[in-house]
Amino acid sequence: MPAFTAVIERCPDTGLLVGYVPGFPGAHSQGETLDELHENLAAVIGMLLEDGEPRLESEFVGTQQVRVD
User: Fold this and answer.
1) Are 17 and 8 in contact (CB under 8 A)?
2) At 34, is the secondary structure helix, strand, or coil?
3) What pLDDT is recorded for position 59?
4) In degrees, to the nearest 5, what angle opens at C-alpha 34 toward C-alphas 28 and 37?
5) pLDDT tens per residue across span 55-69
6) Coil/strand/helix, residue 36
7) What's CA 1's distance to the chain center, in Å?
8) CA–CA dist 69, 60 (Å, integer)
9) Of 13, 22, 66, 67, whose CB is crowded by the most CB atoms within 10 A?
10) How many Å apart are CA 19 and CA 6, to the nearest integer?
């Protein structure tokens, strides 16, 4: 079972959690809770994988804190 890293943000307009897999077109969803978001993302990714192994447009590397003085 493949695993993907998702970036999660909170939408300031709706308050919903929004998640997406960087570099994986179409792999995005939303939910009111982390559990709901996880379920929704898993469902979307599962549907996308039915078309075969994805060709990722980029690879998630990580995050970095940037200090501005």
Assistant:
1) yes
2) helix
3) 87
4) 30
5) 899 988 998 999 999
6) helix
7) 17
8) 27
9) 22
10) 6
| Cβ neighbours around 45 below 10 Å, total | 20
pLDDT at 44: 97
Closest-CA residue to 63 (of 1, 9, 24):
9
pTM: 0.85
Q: Which amino acid belongs to residue 21?
A: V
Helix, strand, coil proportions of the chain in percent (round to 5)?
25, 15, 60
DSSP letter string over 37-64? HHHHHHHHHHHHHTT-S---SS------
